[in-house]
Amino acid sequence: MDHRNQTVLVTGAGSGIGDSFAREAARRGSDLVLVARRAERLEALAAELTATHGTTVEIIPMDLGGPEAAAELVAEVDRRGIEVTALVNNAGFGDHGLVHEQDPARLQEMVQLNVGTLVGLSRAFLPRLRAGGCYLVNVASLAAYQPIPELAVYAATKAFVLSFTEALWHETKGTDLRVLCLSPGLTGTEFLEVAGEVAAGGTSMMQTPEQVVDTAMRTLDGRSTPSVVSGALNRVTANLHRFFPRRLGIEVIARVTASRPPAVAATSSR
């Protein structure tokens, strides 16, 4: 796959996996459109990538958590005359807690960002990408493969992303567009620093954002496949549910999340 002469739009580009996607795309010769809430982070990253790689970088500071966010972002891209040829839907977040105790507005925002905006952007850019685009990557999570008590809504949104993206993969067969669902596990991002999760154990399965992005890019460069789980141990974990009764799997994961609350959501980025 030729990554030169591409323009890659990355959401959640202000930190973590989104930041790493932007850096890798620039290293491979692509121009960029970076979207996140914090303008100062986007400005710093854009200046660095332009200086290092000579790439053209547009920044669009925007909160994608609103119901009209996808349409507003597409309108801004069109207003600037940018021709997007690749899309990385990375923006998302997760909250830990019992559903009946969580803020309803916060849950709705999670569903909107993780699902609604992702679908909206995918739908808006798909006709253009199908006609001559490079790739569409939707970032899910290891949480997509298992219902997770106390991360119920987050895991459900990521299960949606997995199912949706794998279906898109089939719908775009016969075109030059590569569609991929990327599912990271525990990843050393800003989320972990905020949550204080690093000291709670489980770091043997932790990957860096760079490792996660490397998995995605190597997969895109190889034989077309609908989805990939980043990390060998994570791939084993993603398939464990096939060997146990569903009830037992839910009981086991409930104990894990009770002892290490935010870990599965640690790949989130806005």
From TrEMBL:
The Ketoreductase domain covers 6-189
Q: Which Gene3D superfamilies match?
A: NAD(P)-binding Rossmann-like Domain (3.40.50.720)
Q: Does the keyword Ligase apply?
A: no
Q: Which residues form the signal peptide?
A: none
Q: Which terms are listed as keywords in the entry?
A: Oxidoreductase
Name the Pfam families for this protein: adh_short (PF00106)
Q: Does the keyword Nucleotide-binding apply?
A: no
SUPFAM superfamilies, per database record: NAD(P)-binding Rossmann-fold domains
User: What InterPro entries does its record include?
Assistant: KR_dom, NAD(P)-bd_dom_sf, SDR_fam
Q: Which family does it belong to?
A: Belongs to the short-chain dehydrogenases/reductases (SDR) family.
Protein's name according to its UniProt entry: SDR family oxidoreductase
Protein source organism: Pseudonocardia xishanensis
